[in-house]
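Researcher: Here's a chain I'd like modeled. Treat it as a single chain, no partners, no ligands.
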Amino acid sequence: MTVNRHSSRGTRPSSFRLEFTAFCEAHRDAYLRYAQVRIEDRAEAVRCVDAVLEAVQARWVAVLGSACPAAQVWRELRDETGHRTVGVARRSARFHAVLRDDQADILVLHRHLLLPVDHAASLMGLADHDARALLRGAERDFESLPDR
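Model: Modeled as a single isolated chain. Structure tokens:
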């Protein structure tokens, strides 16, 4: 990852840099796995995740001030992977073609990447009970589709 941990941009207390580094260490692997499922090219998935984290680093203090930093970063990752997804034919990609973004994401994280619902919830910035309800609705909606 090319994120500069010792940026001299602005005057950021070192604790914010440490929080950003900890956030990256806690989430980067799952972000990369998600991006790779959606993009299907490891090198492009790495570039995607790095681009998102670099953009977030530049405004980390503002992100921390948002209602839910994890949810904000997740939306940016979803958007960026969507822009980089071209002609993907896997079943996991189909989730995004036929379901709402949040429904597709929870299915990719839980069914395809086999993450526990609480971990998927944390990545997406959701409460556990909201993620479980989202998963139930996504499974119901996906199973009711013809020719799934």
